[in-house]
């Protein structure tokens, strides 16, 4: 019985740990403020290695259930952001995805994620007419995200999200049930 209670307590702790999940939105200062987001200044490339996307979560990490939404505007320059992911995460286009603005426009935007530990680079070339949805998934780690354009002219707006892969809600309950059955089986064997 004590083992069963211990397992139930552990499952409850796991469930509470996942409850901190949050969505945070930022508008890069070159764009009009998007409702419900925080302005992060006129230039996303402030103070290398860039703006820290996760410093408002409290634990400075993108954890299961957390989502960062970023509404930016690139103007013949390189935007860069830093963040730490405590778990695997999806890189998505949201809102309007990528908009061309008046004048010469790039054919695509280049999103490069550099793992700051291994120095591996993961590059996604996204067409400016691309539809919404998940572009790719990366593993946990500390990253620098650089956004550039090809060709390097004109302006483009981007709406992107980093969505940490959630722990399935039923997983703690499944683990508790499995442990409970194991404990009952052991008790029967002893009897």
UniProtKB/TrEMBL annotation:
Leader sequence residues: 1-21
InterPro entries documented for this protein: Ice-binding_C (IPR013424), VPLPA-CTERM (IPR022472)
Record key words, sorted: Membrane, Signal, Transmembrane, Transmembrane helix
Keyword Transferase: no
Transmembrane segments: 160-181
Keyword Methyltransferase appears in the UniProt entry: no
Protein name: VPLPA-CTERM sorting domain-containing protein
Species name: Parvularcula maris
């Amino acid at each position: 019985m004590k083992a069963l209670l211990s397992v139930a307590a552990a499952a409850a702790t796991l469930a509470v740990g996942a409850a901190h999940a949050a969505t945070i939105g930022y508008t890069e200062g070159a764009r009009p403020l998007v409702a419900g987001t925080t302005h992060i200044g006129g230039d996303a490339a402030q103070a290398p290695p860039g703006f820290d996307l996760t410093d408002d979560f409290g634990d400075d990490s993108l954890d299961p259930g957390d989502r960062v939404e970023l509404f930016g505007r690139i103007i013949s320059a390189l935007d860069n952001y830093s963040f730490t992911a405590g778990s695997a995460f999806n890189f998505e286009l949201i809102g309007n995805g990528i908009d061309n603005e008046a004048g010469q426009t790039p054919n695509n935007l280049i999103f490069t994620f550099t793992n700051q530990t291994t120095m591996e680079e993961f590059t996604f070339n996204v067409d400016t007419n691309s539809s919404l949805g998940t572009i790719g998934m990366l593993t946990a780690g500390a990253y620098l995200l650089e956004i550039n354009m090809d060709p390097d002219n004109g302006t483009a707006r981007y709406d992107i999200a980093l969505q940490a892969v959630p722990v399935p809600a039923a997983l703690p309950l499944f683990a508790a049930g499995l442990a409970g059955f194991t404990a009952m089986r052991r008790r029967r064997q002893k009897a």
